[in-house]
Amino acid sequence: MPGLRCKVLSRIVSDDLKLGYVNAPPEPFPVGELPSMPDFEFSDLPEIEGETELAPPLLYAAQLVEWAADRHATDLFVSDDAKSVVIAIRRMGRIEEVRRLAREYGRRLQGHFRAIADAGAADLVHPVEGRGTLAVGPRRSIDFRLSAIPTLFGQDVSIRLFDSEWSQVQLDHLGLNRDELSAVHRLLHFPSGLILVSGPVASGKTSTLYSALRYLNDGSRKIHTIEDPIEYPLPGVHQSQVNVRAKLDFADLLLALLRHSPDVIMIGEIRDPQIARTAVRAGASGQLVLATVHADSAAQAIGVMRQYDVNTTFLARTLIGVINQRLIRRLCPECRQEIATGHELVGNDAVRQQLLGETPILHRAVGCEACNGSGFSSLTCLPEIMLISPEIETAIIEGASPSDLEALASDQGMLRMVDAAQVRVLRGITTPEEICREVDSPELSHLAARYRAAEVAGDASG
Ligand SMILES: [Zn+2]
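That is the input. Now the predicted structure with zinc ion docked in place:
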């Protein structure tokens, strides 16, 4: 029934038009109003007449990227599913599906992104990667990194957006409280040594490193970075990119760089023994070295460095601190709702001490126009900052386990991530549910239980 097919398809296209498909950046469909996809294949449909005139893929690609960047999305996905091409973004760490396109058109859009990124637009068999820039306005362009992999229904095109506006985030806007910020400042004022920033994937490590470099970049220091890839240009900073294809690896670059008398070196990620050893050596020879490492806690970051076969004594003497972190969603201040209050919400002395004089309050997410109905307004950093004292240095040399190191640091005043999390919940910055997604600890269960009970009670009375 070709007539029916065309009718359904034209409805989808015209819905898109009504929603600003051509003349304005696309709006996400409200939940429940996603166009229902007909249960037949689009691939046997003829070309949509006039489609190119309506929204050439080049124009639409730029609109989508600008739209996503304006919403502080970090990623844009253009992926085939069984019947269509789905557009989704990752915003505040969560995936949001925003639009479904007819398959033929969606595939042209994928091809277009791949062409701009110089990622072999014709090769649909192998995973490909590339990088490109889209001009989205007279004075604005957005860099992106693209990776495409073949999937059951076609391909998954993943586009990481590097909006330079976003890269301007300052150290004091990461979401650290006064004590945490002053601990980070203390670390950054060491003339030499190694600072590790740890956390899982997408925990904001790079943002923290960049904001630390921005803080240090006051014209009095020579700052170099070795990155793979360079995510943002930092004016005044000497950034070098690893180039495996040209056999320019990390260790070569670092050794060459040490002859350029840098004061500060930032290393994108420590991910093998050679990088780990060179980073420690650089930190021990008079430079301040900042690097990220993939680990779940500050103490475990030290464990990971040990597994990279780094000389333990050398590491202990060079390491000055570890900033372990997660990104959590901050409640929208316009619509968050108080659901419980009282000192019995406080779980332990460390949390009580932080909240001295404040009334602990639990809030829940509601959703309003300001936060696009999500109840959350932005991402904020949840840190655990370990400063390496002489006692911790000795414990590292003696081979103490990560749990012993954590206990020792906690005795010396380190606020564990699980406690920093509770403090943020009880100050109304976020919810227990949000924390439990990122931090796995039985100590959070009492808060989560109180939260659920208060929610149920609130729903019953309201
Ligand atoms: Zn809101």
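Residues 332, 334-335, 367-368, 370-371, 375 surround zinc ion (CB under 6 Å).
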